[in-house]
Specification:
6 strands; 174 residues; alpha+beta
């Protein structure tokens, strides 16, 4: 019986060693494949960037004609992973195109006005602009509000100038 116990003991040790070797081999294979997978993922993202770097997108914006506000569209180059509302506001702030002017459309937003930030949450839109907007006529604020409405589901729009809220909220939009 003693010889049989020794044989069982050696068999158990051999099986344990085999299981450990299989576990180590499996772990090394998984680690190797995870680095390969990460490399493939990086390659995929690089290809996505190269395909999208010259992407343009068209946004509805508001300009004015002699008869009042007019919704039109403007196409701009879009950086990857950009927020659509931010891009729409940047499109609004561009100078009028030759087509806009030929159609009798103008913007009342002062030149060099910059978008500082914009966000929408729970039906409220907050748009913060540089100080150039402070002397703008009412039509400029209407252009901003209608452009925000065309690009979001916001019901309330608050325009700020360098972080300072204007005296009143733009009209509640339905």
């Amino acid at each position: 019986m003693s010889a049989r116990r020794g044989h069982i003991r050696y068999t158990a040790i051999a099986v344990t060693i085999i299981v450990i070797l299989i576990a180590v081999a499996t772990a090394s294979i998984l680690l190797r494949f995870s680095s390969v997978a990460a490399s493939l993922e990086l390659d995929r993202h690089i290809m996505m960037y190269l395909e999208e770097k010259d992407r343009t997108e068209t946004f509805p914006i508001c300009l004015h004609s002699v008869s009042g506000p007019v919704m039109t569209e403007r196409t701009i180059k879009c950086p990857i992973l950009s927020d659509r509302l931010h891009l729409a506001m940047e499109a609004l702030l561009l100078d009028e195109t030759a087509e806009d002017l030929a159609d009798g459309l103008v913007s009342y937003i002062p030149d060099r006005t910059k978008l500082i930030g914009i966000s929408v949450k729970n039906g409220y839109a907050f748009a913060d602009f540089s100080r150039e907007l402070s002397d703008a006529p009412e039509e400029a604020f209407e252009e901003i509000a209608l452009t925000i409405k065309a690009n979001t589901n916001a019901k309330h729009i608050q325009i700020m100038i360098e972080g300072t809220l204007l005296d009143s909220e733009c009209e509640t939009l339905d």
